Amino acid sequence: MAQLIFPKDFLWGAATASYQIEGGAADDGKGESIWDRFSHIPGKVTNGDTGDVACDHYHRYREDVRLMKELGLKGYRFSISWPRVFPNGRGAVNPQGIDFYNRLVDELLANGIEPAVTLYHWDLPQALQENGGWGNRAIVDDFAAYAAYLFDVLGDRVKKWITHNEPWVVAFAGHFQGRHAPGLTDLPLAVQVTHHLILSHAKAVQAYRASKHGDGQIGITLNLYPSVPASDSESDRAAATLVDGHNNRWFLDPVLKGEYPADILRLYQERLNSPVIEPGDMECIAASPMDFLGINYYFQKVVKHSEVHPILQFEEIKPEGSEYTAMNWEITPQGLTDLLVRLDRDYHHPDLYITENGAAFKDDRRDGGVVDDQDRLKFLQQHFAAAHRALEAGVKLKGYYVWSLMDNFEWAHGYGKRFGLIYIDYQTLERTWKKSALWYREVIRDNGL
Ligand SMILES: OC[C@@H]1[C@@H](O)[C@H](O)[C@@H](O)c2nc(CNc3ccccc3)cn21
């Protein structure tokens, strides 16, 4: 019998993303994405892995929906490949591309699973990148047009929409650190990209409100982290405040308050001359309230002052004595409670969903025909309990999507990092249950643990 009971209708789900699971990278008229291009550049992805085949979900989606049904999922979060629908990013639609998503949505609904669609999860059409991508303000209208088309075609059945997945990663991993597509290393550009992403989010929200199927919910997904100073020194506390601003408040404030945080805006504009904000931009952002905020939580950050960068004067540390996942991410379930309670304290926020939480482990043990991933089961147990503590503190948490439904292409790490509830053999593409999935099925059945 479950000890921790969740609210009635709590939405238990799992999440994936198009480039990470679909494969069919050039099938049926799909256009090239920046991740198709990036993953094929030698040295960018571990082992030279690419998303050419991935989990072959593009061809095996019926089997995968059957597995979701067996799992008892209430919801499934997935993303749409923009270049599968618009091969050149704008203009002609690829009928086979939109047909795939129509079939996927129908299959989910036929199995009683609520679809939640992420419009953008990092796989920009390469043709748009050649026009400057997220660094060119024209992308804002391209994204709004892409979103409006999907609202029109799928909006009668899809009632949960996420505009962007993790604009921080799109901007800084892709345009400053260079470890994600398009592999640029230009900090002022990265900050300008954040503004174009947030503005495009607002335009998409407005397009949704104006659409004939605009009676559902729309939001954004942010990767958020509690930012803890490594010591009580003034310099470390200032570094933690800077990380909270750079990672969290730079995105939370515009989408929830309609303005950028003054401390970070001043830092960026004085030191980087970025972002350029045009007249009317902030009014547009402020006039686009969301129905929910999606939160991707994986770990908290412990931060010390550092001169390693002239502007971003912080460095993350790895505390001794902690447990870590296969990604070398510290396991900090209390950080999830702290994050949710902080959001509740500092923001007038709409409904909250955990749109991603999960962990990579080696998954190299079997127990009969099942992968014996006790470490992932324990991780989820701890984080579900942390979410329950936030609920007990009065936080309006409405659902939880585990990352991920299945092992998949883990960006620059390739296929060597496994996050799935379901194990993928990449030689045979066979799907195998993990113990964490069988345990999750009971949590969903009992609505608690
Ligand atoms: O790394 C696991 C997942 C990834 O597969 C998802 O596509 C992405 O949405 C995602 N975001 C995070 C958290 N943010 C993060 C991004 C890059 C490096 C480190 C953390 C983890 N994950």
Automatic annotation (TrEMBL):
Instruction: Show the catalytic activity.
Output: Hydrolysis of terminal, non-reducing beta-D-glucosyl residues with release of beta-D-glucose
User: Which domain of life does the UniProt lineage start with?
Assistant: Bacteria
Signal peptide start and end residues: none
Residue numbers annotated as active site: 166 (proton donor), 356 (nucleophile)
Annotated GO CC locations:
cytosol
Q: Name one GO biological process term.
A: cellulose catabolic process
InterPro entries assigned to the protein according to its UniProt record, in alphabetical order: GH (IPR017853), GH_1_N_CS (IPR033132), Glyco_hydro_1 (IPR001360), Glyco_hydro_1_AS (IPR018120), Glyco_hydro_1_beta-glucosidase (IPR017736)
Q: Which Pfam families match?
A: Glyco_hydro_1
- UniProt-listed Enzyme Commission number(s): 3.2.1.21
Q: Which PANTHER family match?
A: GLYCOSYL HYDROLASE, LP05116P
What is stated as this protein's family in its record?
A: Belongs to the glycosyl hydrolase 1 family.
- This chain belongs to which protein, by name? Beta-glucosidase
Q: Which organism is it from?
A: Hydrogenispora ethanolica
